[in-house]
Design brief:
single chain; alpha/beta; eight-stranded mixed beta sheet; six-stranded mixed beta sheet; 22 strands; globular
């Protein structure tokens, strides 16, 4: 019986607890330690080959910029007449309409395969996190193209060092697929040496395209850094299709939820997902004017970046309010104090995120700009083993309405 038929009948499982005589087991890197006694199984690669999907997979990795690049690329492919799935931080989208909520930025491989089989898109655009690369949540996928958006400090709670983090990202670019990278060439041979934000990467030189500076200037999103995200998407579209870059029309592009999203024009309030030192710098430096910043840092995550986030905000902000992000099981005040170590501008700590935003809005007089950073379009604040419903944009709009701005 073809695997396609078994999948239609829900007779393939990657969970050993669900295995029965009728079902066949999908053995993956993640579940292999639980399946040592299982003799008959299939692999993700075998399943994908049997399904014979006419879908091109595009993987996007990088510390910052994955989501924006994924949405822009999906928009371009859709404009070119293709059906597109977008999978990542914001959930699952079919032709830019949300069809499933977020699980992980890069879910387990079986989820990805089932989604590709269900929707059968021409292109499957997916964000690929460093965790997913390390845990082989993309095993078996033959990518038509891969994109590297940026590289800077993040996730050192998991990867332990920048070198390990770099090596994981580097490993994603060792095949002969199309590789579109935001970087500069240093040495060209079979394994190209390229520089990304001061770090040397060795990647496969076959089908490698380096974007050293933006290809476009006029884009429908704020932020100088977004010109590079748009450029990476444009170049990838050009390489994969016959779509002419000269026919691009961004008039229908609605932006990316929680990415340089202007929630209010008077006062000017911008919501962004920036949660790394590099991301914060790029966002705050992209708009001129007196700035107020509300932000926090995630609990039980990379502690070493917290004071660096404070330093980054201090370079561009005139006033800072430290608040809760996703404290998880860590004491919120300890997180805030870690961030404060790097702050050199006037600041205060208001752990209640709603109250922090309310105070910041009251300060936005005489043309001051408010940035609310770190959560983007997330719908919750994560505490220890529980989630509280919360969305920055919704709270801002409620506060403005009550203040009769």
């Amino acid at each position: 019986m073809k695997l396609q038929v078994l999948l239609d009948k829900n007779l393939i499982t990657d969970n050993t607890n669900e295995l029965s005589k009728e079902k066949i087991f999908l053995k993956t890197f993640q579940n292999s330690k639980y399946a040592t006694d299982i003799k008959h199984y299939i692999t993700p690669k075998e399943l994908l080959n049997d399904l014979n999907l006419n879908t091109k997979f595009i993987g996007i990795t990088g510390t910052n910029g994955k989501t924006t690049t994924a949405f822009v690329l999906s928009y371009l492919l859709k404009e070119a007449g293709y059906n597109v799935i977008t999978q990542g931080t914001e959930g699952l989208y079919y032709n830019l309409k949300k069809v499933e909520e977020k699980t992980l930025t890069t879910p387990d491989i079986f989820t990805t395969i089932k989604r590709a089989y269900k929707y059968k898109p021409d292109f499957f655009v997916m964000e690929v996190s460093s965790h997913a690369i390390a845990q082989k949540r993309i095993e078996g996928i033959k990518f038509s193209a891969k994109i590297m958006t940026s590289f800077s400090q993040d996730h050192l709670d998991y990867h332990k060092s920048m070198e390990e983090y770099k090596n994981i990202k580097e490993s994603f670019f060792q095949d002969e697929s199309i590789k579109v990278v935001n970087g500069k060439l240093k040495v060209k041979n079979e394994k190209c040496k390229i520089n990304i934000s001061g770090f040397d990467f060795f990647v496969n030189s076959k089908n490698l395209y380096l974007i050293e500076k933006p290809l476009v200037d006029d884009i429908p999103m704020a932020g100088e850094f977004n010109k590079m995200n748009f450029s990476l998407a444009l170049k990838t579209t050009e390489l994969l299709t016959n779509f002419s870059l000269f026919t691009i029309n961004f008039s229908l592009f609605k932006g990316v939820p929680g990415r340089m999203e202007i929630v209010s024009k008077n006062p000017l309030i911008i919501v962004d997902f920036a949660h790394t030192p590099d991301g914060i710098e790029k966002v705050l430096s992209s708009v001129e004017g007196e700035k107020i910043v509300v932000f926090g840092a995630g609990g039980n995550r990379d502690k070493d970046k917290r004071h660096l986030m404070g330093e980054a905000a201090s370079k561009y902000a005139d006033y800072i309010i430290i608040t809760n992000d996703n404290p998880r099981c860590e004491n919120p005040i300890d997180i805030a104090k870690d961030m404060a170590k790097g702050i050199t501008k006037p600041y205060e700590i208001i752990l209640d995120r709603k109250e922090a935003i309310k105070k910041a809005i009251k300060l936005t007089k005489n043309g001051k700009i408010l940035f609310v950073l770190g959560k983007g379009d997330e719908k919750y604040i994560e505490y220890c083993n529980e989630k509280e419903e919360f969305n920055d944009k919704e709270e801002i709009l409620k506060i403005l309405k009550n203040m009769l701005y």
